[in-house]
Amino acid sequence: MRIDICAVGRWRAGPEKTLTDDYLTRAGAAGRGIGLTSFKLTEVEEKRSLTGDALKTAEAALLKGVIARGSRIVMLDERGTLEGSVAFAKRISTWRDAGTQDLAFVIGGADGLDATFRKQADHLMAFGPMTWPHMLVRVLLSEQIYRAVSIITGHPYHRV
């Protein structure tokens, strides 16, 4: 199964990018033996010239354009489900075992996700009720993906 984080906005060099790259590299090394073959980040441009619903609609179109056809889609949204790391790992392994080929995690822009687009998600998840900077959400998500791979493989990175 290939895992792609699809996000609005472009990285600049800095600690958030370094951490995200590191966690996705670690996940890739650990995941190969269990059928998790690819981990990547795909970015789309921010539409700064737009506002409100027009902005969300434009960003949704860009995100749809980079999600692999047939992907299972998980969107990060404040209305999403809160779940622990073990439950998150179980969800990923269940989808892998069911034959999911592509799993796309979607991080919207600063104004959130288009409501119509959000309805297309297979799952909505949240990192709590607080608002997080979008670049930091990439770090949190990539770390949780690596942690999920560690849980699935029985690696001691995750301690219970």
How are the secondary structure elements laid out?
Elements: E1 2-8, H1 15-31, E2 38-44, H2 52-66, E3 72-81, H3 85-97, E4 102-107, H4 115-118, E5 123-125, H5 134-153
Parallel strand pairs: 1-2, 1-4, 3-4, 3-5
Helix pairs in contact: 1-5, 3-5
Q: Major sheet: size, sense and barrel closure?
A: 5 strands, parallel
- Looking across the biggest beta sheet, what order are the strands in? 2-1-4-3-5
**In total, how many domains does the architecture comprise?**
1
* Tally of helical runs: 5
* Parts with pLDDT < 50 across at least 5 consecutive residues: none
Q: How many DSSP-defined strands? A: 5
Q: Portion of residues in helices?
A: 40-55%
| String of helices and strands | EHEHEHEHEH
Radius of gyration equals 15 Å
- Under the CATH scheme, the architecture is 3-Layer(aba) Sandwich
Tell me the fraction of residues in β-strands, as a range: 15-25%
Distance between the termini: 26 Å
| Shape descriptor | globular
The level-1 CATH class:
Alpha Beta
CATH topology: Alpha/beta knot
**Helix- and strand-based class?**
alpha/beta
The CATH superfamily appears as: SPOUT methyltransferase, trefoil knot domain
| Mean pLDDT reading | 95
Give an account of the 3D structure.
- There is one protein chain.
- This protein has five helices and five strands.
- It has one domain (2-153): SPOUT methyltransferase, trefoil knot domain (Alpha/beta knot, 3-Layer(aba) Sandwich).
- Helix 1 (15-31) runs parallel beside helix 5 (134-153).
- The model has no long low-confidence stretch (mean pLDDT 95).
- With 160 residues, it is of the alpha/beta class.
